[in-house]
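User:
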Amino acid sequence: MNDRKGKKVKGLPFYQKAAMYVFITLIGVVFFFIGLYIFIGPDFAKAKSLTDVSFFSLFGNLFLGSLSLLLGAFLYLVTITTQCFTFNFHRPIWKSLKVKFSFVYTIFLCLVGVGLGLSSSIILTPLLKIVSFPKVLSTLLPLLMGIMLVNFVFAQITVWVPLEISVLKKRMKALGLSESEITQGIYIGISDLTKSSFKKFDIIEDDIGLLWIMPDRIVYRGDNDNFEFDRNQLLEISREVDKGSAAAYSGIVHIIIRFRDKDGSERKVRFHIEGKWNVDETRRALDELAERLYEWQGSG
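Assistant: Predicted structure:
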C-alpha cells in the first residue's frame, strides 16, 4: 500500500466544478420543462385561445433558450480562465479590464436572461394566451421577465469572485509581492469621491488592490495607485452611502478615509470590499473592516 500521508490531495479546479454544476443544472431545467409540458400539454391543446400556438415554435424556444444558457456558461468559464482576456500583468490592467469586463458582463446577462426567458416561454406563453393576453405580449413577456429576473439576481450575488481574486493575485505577484503578503492583505477597491459615481456606468472602483492594517500604519498597494499613512496623517474615518452605486440599494455603506499624503496634500478615498459572493457578505466585511480601522485609530 502506498503511503500518501502528508500529501495534499487537490480537488477539481474551480472551472471544472463550475462547468459540471452548470451542465447538471441546465439538463435539470430542460427535463423539468419537458416533463411539465408533457403533463399539461393536452390541456393547452384543448384551449380555443391556443389555436394559433405552434408547439414546434415553443420547443424551438426551449432549444434556443438552452443554447443561450450554455453560451452564457461558456462565456463565464472562458472569462474566468483567461482573467477576462488579460495576459500581461506586468503593467497596469484595471483601466482596460473594466472596459472588457463591462462588455463581457453585458453579454453574459443578455445570454442568461434571454435563455431563461425563452426556456420558460414554453409554459408562460400558452398560459398567457389562455388568459387572453395579446399575442405580442404573450411572446415578449417571458423574455422580459427572464432578463429582469437575471439582472435582479446578479445584483444580489457576485459570480465573478474567482476572476477578482485571480486578477488581483497575479497583478500583486507581478508587482513583487510574496504569497504571504498577498494572503495577509484585504481585497479592496478604491474610488475617488471627487468624481460622481453616476458617471461611471457600471464599475465604480477606480483601482483595486490590497490593504494591510499594520500596528503603526495602513498600507494600500493597488494596480496603479498606492498610499500609506500613520495615525498622525489620518484625519477622519466615516461611513457614507454612495448614492450613485447600485450597492447603495442593497444597504451597503462604504468606508471613507480622509488623510494627509506624504507630500502633505489631503486625500479622501472610498473603500470597496472585493472578493465576496453576495451583498450580505460584502456588508459584513465592510462593517468588520470599519471596526478594525476604528480600533486601530484609537489604539495609538
